[in-house]
Amino acid sequence: FEECMNMPPLEYVNLVRIQKACDFMKKGKDAMSVISQKVGFVSQTTFNRNFKRVVGTTPYQWKSHPENYEGKLENFKVSAHRGW
After folding, report:
1. Cβ(15)–Cβ(78) under 8 Å?
2. What does 19-57 look like in DSSP terms, one character per residue?
3. Residue 39 φ/ψ, nearest 5 degrees
4. Beta-carbon count within 10 A of 13 CB
């Protein structure tokens, strides 16, 4: 997996979760705690930490100005499962 994706499996899973969280933030008005649970994070703290590590900003900052940060996710060229 790591050889093909250039990242460990858990990093991939977290990346897909963050991408889906961004979709939810763009399309809805759910609270961050609801979004973090929808995408599979056990706590909002874990969600915030992983979001900032991947995107470079907090989920709240991203939601205010997604155009400033979307390119960061596109660099990974990974897409979330459509079943969500």
Report:
1. yes
2. HHHHHHHHH----HHHHHHHTT-SSHHHHHHHHHHHHSS
3. -95, 5
4. 13
Would you say 29 and 23 are in contact if contact means Cβ atoms under 8 Å apart?
A: no
3-state SS assignment for residue 72: helix
Q: Is 62 exposed, middle or buried (0-12, 13-18, 19+ CB in 10 A)?
A: buried
Q: Could you give the CA distance from residue 62 to residue 43 in angstroms, rounded to a whole number?
A: 19
Residues 73, 78, 80, 82: what is their CA dihedral angle, to the nearest 10 degrees? 130
Closest Cα partner for 66 from 9, 74, 48? 74
Q: What digits encode the pLDDT tens for the residues 16-64?
A: 999 999 999 988 889 999 999 999 999 999 999 999 998 888 999 988 8
Say what the pLDDT of residue 35 is. Answer: 96
